[in-house]
Amino acid sequence: MAKTLDLNGVTLTRTFEWQGNLMTRPQLIPASDRADWEANRSWLAPTFWDPATEDTWLCSQTIVVRSAGKTILIDTGIGNHKPRPYIPPFDNLDTGFLKNLRTAGVDPAEVDIVINTHLHADHVGWNTHLVGEQWVPTFPNATYLLPQADFDHWNPEGDTEPSGGMDQAPVFADSVLPVVRAGLVQFYNGTHLIDEHLTLKPAPGHSPGSSIVHVSSRGSEKVIVAGDVFHTPMEILRPDQGACFDEDHALAVQSRRRLLAQAAEQSLPIITGHFPIDRAAVVARRGDSYVIDDWVSIQ
What we know:
By secondary structure, this protein is α/β, with parallel strands linked by helices. It has one domain (2-297): 4-Layer Sandwich (Metallo-beta-lactamase, Chain A), CATH 3.60.15. It is built from 9 helices and 16 strands. The chain has a 7-stranded mixed sheet with strand order 1-2-3-4-5-8-9. A 5-stranded mixed sheet has the order 10-11-12-13-14, with no helix packed on it. It has a two-stranded antiparallel sheet with strand order 6-7. The mean pLDDT is 93.
């Protein structure tokens, strides 16, 4: 399924790969208080949360941006046939993601840029696909933009044991190192200008190199593609309560608060990596807190 948001000539198409339950609320957001979720049950359930089971509902997706004559992908999902036994819902998937991309008008050979906002398994999977017994780049003519900090943190071929743990070793083996060896990678640090409409900006905490993408149109319309700064809408209402996947909780909280402050001040819709909806969140400040004031539909 593909949905498109047109920002006066710069388009963002939301292409879903997977949707389902990954964890319960207390597993995903360990510091969360059920009372907060109950207070927001009217809109959280059933789309984001099942009060009876405490299951949280997430998705995996790619944002296709067409800007300045180029086709750009923001994150590449989980991928097919990737061994992920430590994340059972992601283990050896077999989805129609490439068909979904083609339905959205994207030929893999015509993709110009692939942005990995960070290097977790569910954001780099379609960097490669299996041909015979080899993992080869899915987008052979693209430049892959990878955060240097994440690469250094988890690279199993580095000088030291990967500080992020060995779960990342298979991710590097099948989804990261093949594009590096193919000579398709450009590493980025800090703020990175992609073109006149797209800018990568650091939002560390979820991972060392975690980033967001600011998208602006030829006019005044803007949107933020937030990667994994948020996993559930409750992290907007309670930015101090982060997901269990955040590498550095305190830094992740700072990134969430900084993004929310800017988004509220400038009325910037936020497209998230894992909200299982075809809408972007518009946030507003209420005293020292934030609320979702509106949703922008991706038609």
